Amino acid sequence: MYSYIALVSMKVVGVIGGAMKDGSTEIYVLYVDSLYRYLGIGSKLLAALTEQQVAEGAKEQWVSVQEGNQLGIPFYEARGFIYKQKNMTETETSERQVSLRYYRKNLIGVQYRAMLRRNGLN
């Protein structure tokens, strides 16, 4: 299990967590406080998690995004995640939950492109 937090003046404003198994990783949570969105915090958290996972041999990343999540879906798609499938599960309260599965491969290339962008070389 991996996790990172983002701090601003000792206040937690973002968090990411995930795990790896057999070269494949799963992002379980990525959250940025609404007052701190669109400042690059989510991208930095994702980059830190990706860097650690690549160092440990990750070949691909997976994430589930709630259907209709108009913040999460464009965020992941802009960072190279590709839609794979829709999953439907029933909750304990008999509600139907729909999540969209996204993945990305070639994580070393992803890291390299992110480094170029950070240094203004894209």
From TrEMBL:
Q: Which domain of life is it from?
A: Bacteria
Instruction: Tell me which PROSITE patterns the record gives.
Output: GNAT
* One term of GO molecular function: acyltransferase activity, transferring groups other than amino-acyl groups
Q: Where is the N-acetyltransferase domain?
A: 1-105
**Which keywords has UniProt assigned to this entry?**
Transferase
Q: What is this protein called?
A: Acetyltransferase (GNAT) family protein
- Taxon lineage: Bacteria, Bacillati, Bacillota, Bacilli, Bacillales
